[in-house]
Design goal:
By secondary structure, the protein is mainly alpha-helical. The chain has 7 helices and 2 strands; from the N terminus they run H-H-E-E-H-H-H-H-H. The protein has one domain (18-166). Mean pLDDT is 74; it is low at 139-151 and 160-170. It is found in: Nucleus.
Length: 170
């Protein structure tokens, strides 16, 4: 008589995968189906991505996590200082980096699962204690050295009273 594998309980499955990391979920999260075309990226390209529930590491983070509002402000600042070509070049670099990250995740989904579940330090839970400084070169309030090829901080005068309180002082 052939022995069958022992039955696994729901609790033992959770112990083996405490962060609920599922390969198909990761693949579906970084792509989506629109008009019955598979494999397209989500509409907004720049956002952090951490699979599962509370996994210690995110697969996409750092300089690739930018809100549309951050990009809009940076574009306005770049345009007002004559640095629009630099902004466009940095945007293209970020877009290329994001695309390569997503392609790497799709090509190595099992490795991505292992990486996300890795509890070694540092991990995203550490960022709750000490946030990392901004890495986007045109981030508001971040000064760069003109001698190193960076942009000089600019003075921004906001005329709309509601916006004046919303933007940080430069």
């Amino acid at each position: 008589m052939e022995k069958s594998a022992p039955r696994r309980t729901a609790a033992s499955l959770v112990d083996d995968n405490p962060y609920h990391l599922v390969t198909d979920d990761i693949r579906n999260d970084v792509t989506y189906v629109r008009d019955k075309k598979e494999g397209e990226r989500p509409a907004y390209p720049f956002g952090a991505y951490g699979p599962g529930k509370g996994a210690p590491k995110q697969l996409i983070e750092g300089p690739l996590e930018l809100s549309p509002e951050e990009l809009r402000v940076q574009a306005y600042l770049a345009r007002s200082t004559g640095a629009l070509p630099q902004f466009e070049a940095q945007y293209a670099q970020l877009e290329q980096l994001m695309n390569s990250k997503v392609q790497n995740i799709l090509a190595n989904t099992e490795d991505a699962k292992r990486y996300a579940a890795d509890e070694s330090q540092p991990n995203r839970n550490d960022n709750l204690i000490k946030p990392a400084p901004g890495t986007w070169p045109l981030r508001v309030g971040q000064s760069t050295s003109a001698s190193s090829g960076g942009l000089r901080p600019v003075q921004v005068r906001v005329r709309h009273p509601g916006l004046a309180s919303a933007l940080p002082q430069l």
